[in-house]
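Q: Here's a chain of 208 amino acids. Please give me its 3D structure as tokens.
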Amino acid sequence: MMEMTLENEDIDTRERIKDAARQIFMKHGLEGARTEEIANLSQTNPSLISYYFKGKEKLFDTVLSETFSAFIDRVEKIVNTIDTDFETKVHQLVDCYSDLILESPHLPMATLIKIRKKNRAILSYTNRMRVMLHRSEMAKQFQQRINKGAYKQAILAQVIINLVSLTLFPALAAPVLSNMGDMKQDAFMMLIKDRRQYIADWVLYTLR
């Protein structure tokens, strides 16, 4: 009974640390996050972060992996829903990626860095995404639109590349774009929101 209680306490502590870390990492990124701040928010101490996660970067990897997994689950639901047409799915995917930036503005750059370092977990998620999109209901709908002459010949990968790059680029280039437009953080986030309709319309326009 005592052993079970200690196990539950371990789980609770780990989850509190991860929840606190998620908030701080998504706000400040890996470099800007402080272990002491995570410990204070989770009502633990820095030594427990080292004990459970072997340090700040390993904790970041855990949070990033779980965030990525939840994001892919959301994408999978969008692309495999039978009751929505291809055009609606494009709009929903743009919203999905835009929400990711608004909730976690540091995530795109962190993910890019992890991919360049050949992080196995992130690479496995990107491979999962590739396979899932290739076999999706969205892919079938896209081919049907091409067969009917509604869209010119293309592959779905090109559509996704356009959609993702247009959505994520402002987050990757945020410091430069903010300075060019003399925008504060709130104004920049509003720009991301306003781009949703434009991006989806442009992606669909290029297919006709």
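Q: Can you summarize the key feature?
A: The chain has a mean pLDDT of 85.
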